[in-house]
UniProtKB/TrEMBL annotation:
Keyword Cytoplasm among record annotations: no
Keyword Membrane: no
Gene3D superfamilies: 3.40.630.30
Top-level taxon: Bacteria
PROSITE patterns: GNAT (PS51186)
Origin species: Streptomyces halstedii
Listed SUPFAM superfamilies: Acyl-CoA N-acyltransferases (Nat)
Coiled-coil portions: none
Protein name per UniProt: GNAT family N-acetyltransferase
Location of the N-acetyltransferase domain: 10-182
Keywords of this entry: Transferase
GO molecular function: acyltransferase activity, transferring groups other than amino-acyl groups
């Protein structure tokens, strides 16, 4: 198995075409999808026909340096969800989005913070990234807490996209957090 990243307790690896069922199960938990779809599961065919091909194409586009990766516990190997660090399609390669989606069973153990910290380190020291951003709904407190624990700064409040206006809390809009390489380096000192 190719390893993309290791943190203290977790390992990230590239997804393969055989992993659709892991994502289908992850997205079938209404609590996981609460601030993404309002709780609705992602249709399995959307994962098989759109999400997986798009994830695999991303590895090629970014030379296997950036993308969306499966997270497993080192102890026992259980799949716990995914993390991403990737530019916008067609956007500058040195600016990457941080994202995460974890199984409810592992929330509150510090996994999102731990792996995101390792991703920032890799991005800023190895991959040539100059700025990392992350976006979520204003009311998604646990996601924002992770961004704030990473030292990211709230830079913008934007309206929730039209396809999410039915989601609870969408009237409060979305938030965008950023951290530059310089800001990250100052925090390490
Ligand atoms: C958002 C999400 C990834 C957070 O994952 P998580 O692993 O529970 O996050 P963490 O454990 O790092 O932080 C959450 C809590 O764990 C606690 N924690 C326990 N051990 C910890 C440790 N060693 N280090 C840091 N925090 C720790 C913290 O107190 C923290 O509490 P806080 O939120 O009050 O600050 C997870 O809730 C999720 O997948 N949600 C559904 C999908 C989603 O909304 N994704 C974001 C969309 S933009």
């Amino acid at each position: 198995m190719t390893t993309y990243l290791e943190s203290e307790r977790l390992t990230l690896r590239p997804f393969t075409a055989a992993d659709a069922d892991l994502l289908i199960e992850l997205d079938s938990d209404p609590a996981v999808m609460r601030y993404l779809s309002g709780g609705a599961p992602t249709p399995p065919e959307e994962i098989r026909d759109l999400a997986i091909p798009s994830i695999l194409a991303g590895y090629e586009r970014w030379d296997h340096d950036l993308g969306l990766f499966a997270a497993h516990e080192k102890d026992g190997g259980a799949f716990v969800g995914w993390f991403c660090l990737r530019p916008l399609r067609g956007g500058p390669r040195e600016e990457a989005e941080l994202g995460y989606r974890l199984r409810q069973a592992v929330w509150g153990r510090g996994y999102a913070t731990e792996v995101s910290q390792a991703l920032l380190t890799k991005g800023f020291t190895v991959l040539g990234i100059r700025m990392v951003w992350a976006e979520t709904m204003t009311v998604n407190r646990s996601s924002r807490n992770v961004m704030e624990k990473l030292g990211m700064t709230l830079v913008e409040n934007t309206p929730t996209p039209d396809d999410m206006t039915a989601v609870e809390g969408s009237e409060h809009g979305d938030v965008r957090y950023e951290i530059t390489k310089e800001q990250w380096e100052r925090r390490q000192a």
